């Protein structure tokens, strides 16, 4: 009898959560607390209707809606449910009315106090806190049973069945955990929906920015041409200014090119080449920069003939960006090492540095467009490289330890013409 009633109660308590799923707004909180309060009040009343009367008390899961309403929908919703329960309990009458009221108030106390910090916790902790609040309501019920027995003059009278009490505890915990989990599922789903909408917006913005960047590049080229002409004819003081203007113009141009390359990497000349050839070229290109920074640039190349079939210049660009970052992150006297391994199907290139490394927070942001920690950085290099490697169907992963250094691993698939010719 008890089990049946409790199982019915369990279904009743999760019903309003399912209703609420349709009422969830964009802030992940239930949008109308009064409506949510009324829904949970109905559930609490239904629980009380199907309660199990024994030991002078009514046993049901009425406190589950109170706790859920306080924690997931706020003070107003919780208050409505609490008030409904108290009024209903008074109307039900009996000897234990006062216990029913005190129990309800004490039960509501913990979720009420938790409310403020609740939304600062991660989802799993929120479920845990809800279960704790449920546990607290069981403790309150047990204590009130004890107190009632005390007033009857026999504090240690054990007139209730232990399995019954355990069953009540178990089913209430299941009900509350289930309701909390369902809520979290709803919140998660809503967040994903928002994330998709945001991504779509960003995508459109990205396309727009790319077309503007493209339009800006043409007048820049014209301006640059005329400035170069003017510089050739200029012998006076303006010569220095023009040099400065031209260098800044070149910087603007390179940023725009990087951005355009990120938006849509152009693979102009697809050819077969040896990976080690490109690696040696990149090493030669960057050795002066490393020397200027006082960083030792070393390579341990495996000269196995690994052939790639893609745009050589794009791969070079990707490698230059990543190695340049490694050099820039390394203090004077540090070391940057490049080595590669390959088998039949793929080649990996490892760029390790003894630089400042990155914290997990920085690591999670790497590759985000315009993310930079440098004064004169653009935050484009890594994004461009990742995009290029992605287009080549390769993968890049980062391992980093603050203060120790970073290892960037790039894995590239071997080039087979029929597969890669379309990119
Ligand atoms: P930029 O070099 O213009 O800052 P990037 O996209 O190339 O832009 O790099 C973004 C940020 O990632 C850098 O500002 C730096 O903080 C971090 N970063 C990239 N590579 C490394 C590395 N090897 N070690 C430490 N930090 C790095
Ligand atoms: Mg960079």
Molecular structure report:
The chain has helices spanning 2-21, 33-49, 63-73, 75-92, 97-118, 123-151, 162-233, 238-263, 275-293, 312-329, 360-365, 381-391, 417-420; strands at residues 52-54, 57-59, 270-274, 296-300, 307-311, 335-342, 346-353, 395-401, 405-413. The protein is of the alpha+beta class and 423 residues long. It has three domains: 2-196, Arp2/3 complex 21 kDa subunit ARPC3 (Orthogonal Bundle), CATH 1.10.1760.20; 198-263, Helix Hairpins; 270-420, Histidine kinase-like ATPase, C-terminal domain (Heat Shock Protein 90, 2-Layer Sandwich), CATH 3.30.565. The longest helix has 72 residues, at 162-233. It is elongated. The structure holds adenosine-5'-diphosphate and magnesium ion. Magnesium ion is lined by residues 321, 324-325, 381.
Based on secondary structure, the structural category is alpha+beta
Helix content percent band: 55-70%
Bound molecules: adenosine-5'-diphosphate, magnesium ion
Beta-strand percent range: 5-15%
What is the CATH third-level topology name of the largest domain? Arp2/3 complex 21 kDa subunit ARPC3
Uncertain residue segments = 418-423
List keywords for this structure.
423 residues; alpha+beta; Arp2/3 complex 21 kDa subunit ARPC3; Helix Hairpins; Heat Shock Protein 90; 3 domains; 5-stranded mixed beta sheet; two-stranded antiparallel sheet; elongated; disordered C terminus; binds adenosine-5'-diphosphate; binds magnesium ion
């Amino acid at each position: 009898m008890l089990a049946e009633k409790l199982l019915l109660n369990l279904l009743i308590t999760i019903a309003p959560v399912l209703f609420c799923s349709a009422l969830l707004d964009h802030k992940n909180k239930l949008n109308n607390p009064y409506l949510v309060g009324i829904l949970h009040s109905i559930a609490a009343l239904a629980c009380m209707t199907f309660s199990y009367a024994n030991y002078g008390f009514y046993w049901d899961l009425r406190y589950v809606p109170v706790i859920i309403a306080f924690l997931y929908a706020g003070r107003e919703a919780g208050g409505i449910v609490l008030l409904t329960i108290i009024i209903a309990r008074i109307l039900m009458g009996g000897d234990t009315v006062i216990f029913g009221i005190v129990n309800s108030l004490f039960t509501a106390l913990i979720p009420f106090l938790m409310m403020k910090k609740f939304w600062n916790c991660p989802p799993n902790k929120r479920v845990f806190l809800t279960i704790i609040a449920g546990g607290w309501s069981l403790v309150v019920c047990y204590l009130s049973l004890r107190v009632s027995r005390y007033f009857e003059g026999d504090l240690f009278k054990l007139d209730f069945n232990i399995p019954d009490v355990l069953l009540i505890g178990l089913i209430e915990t299941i009900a509350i955990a289930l309701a909390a989990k369902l809520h979290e599922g709803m919140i998660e789903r809503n967040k994903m929906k928002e994330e998709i909408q945001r991504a779509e917006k960003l995508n459109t913005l990205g396309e727009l920015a790319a077309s503007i960047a493209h339009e800006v590049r043409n007048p820049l080229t014209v301006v640059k041409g005329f400035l170069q002409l003017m510089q050739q004819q200029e012998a006076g003081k303006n010569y220095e200014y023009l040099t400065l203007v031209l260098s800044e113009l070149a910087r603007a141009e390179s940023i725009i090119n990087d951005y355009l390359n990120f938006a849509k990497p152009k693979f102009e000349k697809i050819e077969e080449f040896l990976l080690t050839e490109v690696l040696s070229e990149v090493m030669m290109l960057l050795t002066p920069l490393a020397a200027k920074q006082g960083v030792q640039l070393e390579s341990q190349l495996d000269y196995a003939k690994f052939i790639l079939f893609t745009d050589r210049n794009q791969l070079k660009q990707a490698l230059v960006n990543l190695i340049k970052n490694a050099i820039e992150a390394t203090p004077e006297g540090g070391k940057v090492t490049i080595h590669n391994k390959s088998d039949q199907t793929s080649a990996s290139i490892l760029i390790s540095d003894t630089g400042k490394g990155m914290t997990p927070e920085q690591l999670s942001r790497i590759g985000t467009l315009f993310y930079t920690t440098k004064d004169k950085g653009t935050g484009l290099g890594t994004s461009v490289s990742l995009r290029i490697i992605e287009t080549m169907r390769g993968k890049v992963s980062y391992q980093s330890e603050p203060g120790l250094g970073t290892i960037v691993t790039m894995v590239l698939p071997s080039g087979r013409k029929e597969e890669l010719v379309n990119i």
